[in-house]
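Severity: low
Component: inverse-folding endpoint
Summary: output formatting inconsistent between runs
Steps to reproduce: submit the following C-alpha cells with default settings.
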C-alpha cells in the first residue's frame, strides 16, 4: 500500500527499491508519521524531502502548519495525495 502511495505522490518508482521492504513494516496506528520521519523515509527510499507546508497538506488538506501533525490514517493520506494531484493538474 505505502509503495503505491509514495510512487503516486512522486510520480516515479522508488529510486532505491532495495529499501522498499521498510514500507511493509510501517504501522501508523501507534504513533503516526511526523514531518521529520516522513522526510527521513523519503530520503531512505531515494526521493527528495518535502517542506512542512506540503507535509501539512498531506496530513489534513490544509497548509496551516502545526508542528505536532502526524499522518495516522493511510486513507486520509491517500485522499490528500489524490487532492494534490487533482489541484496540480488544473494548474
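Observed output (run 2 of 3):
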Amino acid at each position: 500500500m505505502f509503495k503505491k502511495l509514495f510512487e503516486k505522490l512522486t510520480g516515479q518508482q522508488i529510486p532505491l527499491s532495495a529499501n522498499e521492504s521498510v514500507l511493509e513494516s510501517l504501522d501508523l496506528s501507534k504513533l503516526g508519521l511526523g514531518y521529520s520521519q516522513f522526510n527521513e523515509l523519503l530520503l531512505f527510499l531515494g526521493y527528495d524531502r518535502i517542506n512542512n507546508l506540503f507535509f501539512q497538506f498531506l496530513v489534513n488538506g490544509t497548509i496551516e502548519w502545526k508542528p505536532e501533525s502526524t499522518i495516522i490514517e493511510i486513507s486520509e493520506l491517500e485522499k490528500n495525495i489524490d487532492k494534490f494531484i487533482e489541484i496540480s493538474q488544473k494548474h
